[in-house]
């Protein structure tokens, strides 16, 4: 009996928190957030898996892998139950960060999934096989509310919604929130909104400041305290196949995403005391980069 309780306790402890990064609007910073939040958590020594569920495979190429050359991807895991995700997962330069890559073939998956039993829960079944291997699983969603995104929301414990500090920031947000509500009611009652993340903020622009004010007024504590500033290093890093922290450790982008990781950990009572104080360079020097 006691053994069973200890086992139960341990198995609960090591289940990853699954977080989907979603917004059906393109270009709002989903992939940038998925890569750099995952990398920041990994640098803080939380074992993290980044799952690329966008057929455009930007998270895959942004971590330095050529999507054309990838043998197996999330697509194969979804359409073929016999393919175990561990055989598909790739190691990255950061020892605590791994990637379940995407491939353009994923475009066809939605059609192939239509006749599958429990077609909304296929990704959940894939991730269940590896949920005990990580502390965090971060899912980068495509700019759509199609079946793959519904699968991501059905698999997830929570969702982060990046919103660009630009014109029409709120556009489409109502539709996204009502989709989340439908998923909560019909498919995944435990799904929470982890937070709305304001991205590409430029303090010199009045519009940027207006968006921040409006969003904070409207959504209050749902908005992360951390705001991601516009930083060209963030847009350059993917072409070098690197997360920002390995591209330029002293950039604003690195600072912003490390702060986001700490805010997320704190919210989830997972922040270790030393994490807030340690210098990023010092931390990187301790990690065995491959
Ligand atoms: N904070 C930022 N500062 C500067 N450029 C950014 C920032 N966030 C994202 N970008 C750039 O904006 C574009 C869209 O971002 P991306 O993360 O790909 O959005 P999504 O995945 O939502 O389509 C990319 O070229 C990316 O490099
Ligand atoms: Mg993207």
Task: Provide a descriptive summary of the structure in words.
The chain has 290 residues and is of the alpha/beta class. It has a single domain, classed as P-loop containing nucleotide triphosphate hydrolases (Rossmann fold, 3-Layer(aba) Sandwich). The protein is 42% helix and 12% strand. It is built from 14 helices and seven strands. It has helices at 2-13, 30-43, 58-62, 74-79, 109-113, 122-128, 147-155, 173-186, 206-219, 232-236, 244-247, 252-267, 273-277, 280-286, and strands at 17-21, 48-52, 90-91, 97-100, 136-140, 158-164, 192-199. Strands 3-4-2-5-1-6-7 form a seven-stranded mixed beta sheet, sandwiched between helices. Strand 6, helix 8 (173-186) and strand 7 form a beta-alpha-beta unit. Helix 2 (30-43) crosses helix 12 (252-267) and helix 6 packs across helix 7 (147-155). The protein starts with a helix and ends with a helix. The mean pLDDT is 93. Bound molecules: adenosine-5'-diphosphate and magnesium ion (MG).
What brief labels describe this structure?
globular, alpha/beta, 290 residues, single chain, binds magnesium ion, seven-stranded mixed β-sheet, Rossmann fold
Structural class: alpha/beta
Number of helices: 14
Low-confidence stretches: none
The molecules bound to the chains, other than polymers, are: adenosine-5'-diphosphate, magnesium ion
Oligomeric state of the chains?
single chain
Highest-level CATH class: Alpha Beta
Q: What would you report as the Rg, rounded to the nearest angstrom?
A: 18 Å
Approximately what portion of the residues adopt beta-strand conformation? 5-15%
Corresponding CATH superfamily: P-loop containing nucleotide triphosphate hydrolases
Instruction: List the domain count as a whole number.
Output: 1
Order of helices and strands: HEHEHHEEHHEHEHEHHHHHH
CATH topology: Rossmann fold
Amino-to-carboxy terminus distance: 44 Å
Lateral strand order in the biggest sheet: 3-4-2-5-1-6-7
**Percent range of helical residues:** 40-55%
Query: What would the average pLDDT be, to the nearest integer?
Result: 93
Profile the largest sheet. 7 strands, mixed
Principal-axis shape equals globular
CATH architecture: 3-Layer(aba) Sandwich
